[in-house]
Design goal:
Tumour Suppressor Smad4; 5 helices; alpha+beta; Rossmann fold; single chain; 2 domains
Length: about 250
């Protein structure tokens, strides 16, 4: 098995990479059968984005802070762990954001979020599959999450956790002011969501797909891209599906 080791810029991650390379060797990422990413969840996302198009399986080991998408760090028996790992396959969200400077496209593995840029609350219209579902939402922002990302920003915004195979996309408001009691929606994975920014000059809004940000957007379109499949590898006793279920019983 040809393994490539990539690490975040932290001291802990870099030292872990040195030890693993000394023990197992290293392969150029473009020739590897599997990539081992060392760091936190941000390193997993960065690695997946870096190799979009080739989409090799990525096995993360936690040398960061949160590590929800990472396996426990252990140096022993790594080839056996990789051989026994279970694959979690996810499709990213594709964002098309229209701003005063043009149209910008990006992919999101976790979520696409719209956020107010100033003290003024954002004012948005939400359209799903060509039908206006919410004529006006006044809020700090709103997001659409993948199932894999439903335990990230979506959960912090009190959105629902979604199992990987549910074929659902959480649509979650961030600090909704009006309608105050609206808590969001669960949409089919085939849904096409459009956000129109109302009063964009008075209430400027940015749109972010993972870590790609577009400022002063007017309209943002979001949909799942089933033509792209990303593969993350997890130890059998700690699969991503199990983590998503367990997270819902954490108190």
């Amino acid at each position: 098995m040809r393994i490539a080791f990539l690490a975040a810029q932290t001291e802990a991650a870099q030292q872990a990479r040195e030890r693993l390379v000394a023990r197992y060797g290293d392969c150029p990422p473009g020739e590897a059968d599997v990539i081992v990413a060392l760091g936190g969840d941000g390193m997993m996302l960065e690695t997946q984005h870096r190799f979009l198009g080739r989409n090799p399986p990525v096995y993360g080991m936690n040398r960061g802070s949160v590590g929800f998408l990472m396996n426990d760090y252990r140096e022993e028996d790594l080839p056996a762990r990789l051989a026994a790992a279970q694959a979690a396959r996810v499709h990213p969200l594709r964002m098309r954001a229209h701003s005063a400077t043009g149209t910008h496209a990006a992919l999101a593995i976790n979520e696409v979020s719209l956020l107010r840029e100033t003290r003024q609350a954002a004012k948005l219209r939400i359209i799903v599959d060509g039908k206006v579902r919410l004529p006006e939402l006044i809020c700090d922002g709103v997001l659409v999450s993948t199932p894999a990302g439903s335990t990230a920003y979506n959960l912090s915004a009190h959105g629902p956790i979604v199992p990987l195979d549910a074929k659902l996309l959480p649509l979650t408001p961030i600090s909704a002011f009006r309608p105050r009691r609206w808590r969001g929606a669960l949409l089919p994975s085939t849904a096409r969501v459009v956000f129109e920014v109302l009063e964009p000059d008075k209430r400027p809004v940015s749109a972010t797909a993972d870590y790609t940000e577009v400022r002063d957007v007017r309209r943002v379109e979001v949909r799942e891209d089933p033509s792209i499949t990303l593969t993350m590898l997890f130890d059998p006793d700690h699969s991503l599906s199990e983590r998503i279920i367990a997270e819902q019983f954490t108190v």
